[in-house]
User: What shape does this take?
Amino acid sequence: MKIDEIVTVLESFAPTALQESFDNCGLLVGNRHREATGVLLCVDVTESIVDEAIDLGCNMIVAHHPLIFKGIKKLNGQTYVERCIEKAIKNDLAIYAAHTNFDIVRQGVSWEMAHRLGLQDIRVLAPKTDTLCKVVTFVPPRYLAQIQEAVSEAGAGHIGDYDCCSYSSDGTGCFRALEGTSPFVGKKFEIHSEQESRVEWISPSYSVDRVVSAIKKVHPYEEPAIDIYPLKNRWDNYGLGVVGRLTEEQDEKSFLQDVKKIFDIGCIRHSPLLGRKIRTVALCGGSGADFIGNAKSNKADIYLTSDVTYHRFFEADGQILIADIGHFESEQFTKNIFYKHITEKFPNFAVRFSQTEKNIISYF
Assistant: This one.
């Protein structure tokens, strides 16, 4: 099996096109065409992780946080990043990062947190915007089903928990074939009218090229008309953070104690307790202070995230309980998502959780 096959599995679940603009997801080090001997899973790539992979005979590391965030101008071993890259290259070790694309996708990082807390009715906290397009084409009615099937397979027509979604209406198309053409219907140099179905789909922007290729592949016309419209719709399927409900309400201290146990947290920083019951929970793995407002607008009783600075706690404003549970702690179960998808596709392949990884932050 090739490293590229592991990459394909991960990116089929969470395409790198979903990553935030600042991010650097994907295969950072290594040759995707090499044979894969084993995968080591972690949150952060460190020198001890690289050594562990080499000792275990795993020639691929899949991490949540990218080892390389900024451009590297020198490679002389002065930083742990440079030393990790050097050692990986010398040992033919591939390093792959699955970061904000795994934060944004459904059943990603925040969803995993929500499942471990037993939340129900989970929905996206901060949906993506300006990422959808409408794709339209015109086809003879007898080819409509074939076009619909091909476009659905190419990734368009997904709305919520439904797929194969499209809309079609009948009308009359008009055209004239010119020199050098071989028209499917009609004759050269004559204006021709044809009964056609107008069919349209919603598609993520990153899938549009694939969708257009699928249309052209099965469309009977030599030059099919294809329209692409950018949409302002929110993409409720994808986004950062989630909101869900506890099956039974809890008091604040009891719930925080459960969170501390489930996520193995040394301590929780939080805004003043409000003396209210907890039922609706908002959360975001990693640095999620920017979504405090989203948590409040979703009527959450508590918002769990990390990297909340001093002044951001004032935004609770007596309306919500904000709890900073730690960056590593909130994202530690991302490794389980990697494991699930790789082993489901390749059940007999060596996939290991790092045993040397530890939170870089200690609690005194």
User: Anything to note?
Assistant: The first helix runs from residue 3 to 13. Residues 40 and 58 are 6 Å apart (CA to CA). DSSP finds eleven helices and 15 strands in the chain.
